[in-house]
Amino acid sequence: MPWSFYLALKQLFPSGRKLSFFSVLSIAGVSLGVCLLIVVLSVMNGFQKEIRDKIVETTGHLRVEAGSVIYDYDGIMEALLGLEYRGEKVIRAVSPYAYGFVIVQNRSVPVFPAIRGVDIAYEAEIVPFNKFLISGSVDDLDNDSVIISSGLARKIGARQGDVLELASPLIIEKLKEDELMLPREVRVVGIFETGWTVIDNNTLFCTLTLMQEFYGLEDGIHGLTVRLVDGYDEEVDLITGKVNELLRQGEDFPMGVRAFSWLDLNRDFLFVLQLEKSVMFFLLLFVILVSAFAITSTLLITVVRKTKEIGLLAAMGAKPGGLVACYTFQGFILGVGGATLGIALALLALANRNEIVGFVAKIFNKEEALIRFYRFTHLPAHYQRDDFLWVVLCAIIISTLAGLIPAFRASRMKPASALRDE
Amino acid sequence: MVGKSSISLIPAVIESREIVKTFPNGREVIQVLDGVDFKLERGKTASIRGESGSGKTTFLNIISGLEAVDSGQLFWDGNRVDLRSSGELAAVRSSQIGFIFQAYYLLPELNLWENVLLAARLRGKPEPRERDRAEYLLRRVGLAERFKFSVEKLSGGERQRAALARALMNRPRLILADEPTGNLDETTGDSMIELLLEMVREEGASLILVTHNMKHAAKTDVSYRLHLGKLQPVKHNG
To answer: Which of A14, A315, A420 shows the shortest C-beta gap to B99?
Structure first.
């Protein structure tokens, strides 16, 4: 080992002596920064993952749409279910749907929720209805009933068993032709809550047949929802490309039919999530920067304290480059030590995150508020290897750079002056 | 002993010619060395005395290449070195010159054995024979039982003996000892000088000893006094 590295290690971990207080302080600073970054990023990943999983769980992986009503979609469904990607069938389920908006009235309260007509036999393969139902049953859904979201139920004060009046926008079309289309009475057979606010606020589900009646679609649909076989989530973009290739080749398929992945459909939202995480990373990086100042000042103090030793080393033949390496390497070691300890602390904190949150909430008597306002009872966390790598890399680079100033100061010392400095 | 200026066939391990060194002090310039001529043959020992501030340490710094001269010439083993870069000088210094200071300058983060071996480490990875030599030198200076000791637990005399072992580690041709007994009591100082001269002779090295102590100065082959920037040979009685 070169003398500069050897001496750097010895200055940090002296033979037969305890680790210096300044070194402990520097390592603690870096480790806290690393810990904080990893905890925050992992919790944000956890929330992101929950949101992403929720989107896939409620909307499927892909949507196939044509921009107009699709008739004769059996061929498309068959082709999609037979699609092979890398020699494997990757599409687990396909479900036809029709969607739009309706006017709902209950006890004179009108609202305009989104309505989605699905064939429950197919849709159940894509959306786990039973998991989301907070009252009622999917089995009771027929052409005279609907399942409504919890937010909508609250808005119109509806409960399971209530009868709602649904008016289709088709009423206006009919009026133009001097025909009268009366609102349709439907029974509420279930109330659901997915945890995905966009859906929970203002949605209702009905059968595909009812929706086709409402919108005058005959046996047409607006699109198909596709769910992939488990394990292909990360390759959804490539599979979407493959689906589009298939749709372009099919001669009997309607014009303009195209597949969109859930990533395409939520790109703006996902971008905001990613941006939020990047900004958080950038801001928390300042914690490491602050600890880098601690490293710089620690090593500067060391250089000043060891002026004579530096003079001695120069007298004994140490070159300035060696002194630079010695103190820069100390910054590097403090960075590595801080990053390692920081990761350990972060893993420990994340393993006990719910206990910690619970404890803090209990102290401030905010347990209910957590559930009511933040809509979580447990703190999600998801580890991403890239986050760990970036945080560790940044911590080590910043700490190493922090060692440069003291290193150059040491290397610029005139040996004779350093030795004379009594 | 008498300062010898006669012609010798033994090559000089160190030689300075007309060395001039000044230091700025505000608007004034202090002339510390004013044309110093000095020559020390291989295997010989020399002492330099002088009042505090007379320039003894500056002279040692100059002949070891730690400080640049204003004018004059410096030779190591007959090669002119005063025009060489500090990097080149550092490389040669690490193998040819050993230092002993009044304040020892042992590194507190290293134990005794590591301090001695540091001299070899500065030249590259220490080989087994160098580790053996560090052990031998520590035994030779009477610190066989203190190998793994922290240097902070050693007495002043022990520290200076350790510094002597470190100075001799790389088998240098020249030892520069700058008031090595300055922090020691008289008895310890005397025995230290005895040991220093004995080991320097054993190793075949040359020695320049800067001291205030006339008794110690008298034990070297040649003695000088640095006064008003000039180096003057000194004659000792007995």
So the answer is: A315
Distance from CA of B91 to the nearest CA of A (A): 6
Is the pLDDT at A91 greater than 60? The verdict is yes
* Nearest chain B residue to A420, by CA: B57
Pair (A352, A302) in one structural domain? yes
The domain in which residue A407 lies consists of 3-52+269-420
Any residues with CB less than 8 A from the CB of A289 and at least 6 apart, and which? A398
Nearest C-alpha in A relative to B117: A3
Averaged confidence pLDDT in chain A:
86
Do A412 and A360 have their domain in common?
yes
Element (H, E) at A326: helix A320-351
B58 in contact with A at a CB cutoff of 8 Å? yes
**Token code pair at residue A24:** 């402990």
| Residue-wise pLDDT tens digits, A243-294 | 998 888 877 788 888 999 988 888 888 888 888 888 888 888 888 788 788 7
**CA-to-CA distance for B46 and B48, rounded, in angstroms?**
7
Between positions 79 and 98 of B, the ones with CB within 8 A of A are: 86-87, 90-91, 93-95
CB A169 within 8 A of CB A216: no
Q: Is residue A246 assigned to a domain? A: no
CA A403 from chain centre, in angstroms, equals 36
Q: Which fold has domain B12-103+172-233?
A: Rossmann fold (3.40.50)
- The alpha-carbon gap from B106 to the nearest alpha carbon of chain A, in Å, equals 8
Indicate the number of domains in chain A: 2
- Per-residue pLDDT, averaged over B63-67, amounts to 86
Residues sharing a CB contact under 8 Å with residue A416, sequence separation 6 or more, in sequence order: A311, B58, B61, B66, B67
Q: Does B105 touch chain A (CB under 8 A)?
A: yes
Cα–Cα distance measured from residue B91 to residue B83, given in angstroms and rounded to the nearest whole number: 15
pLDDT above 80: residue A17: no
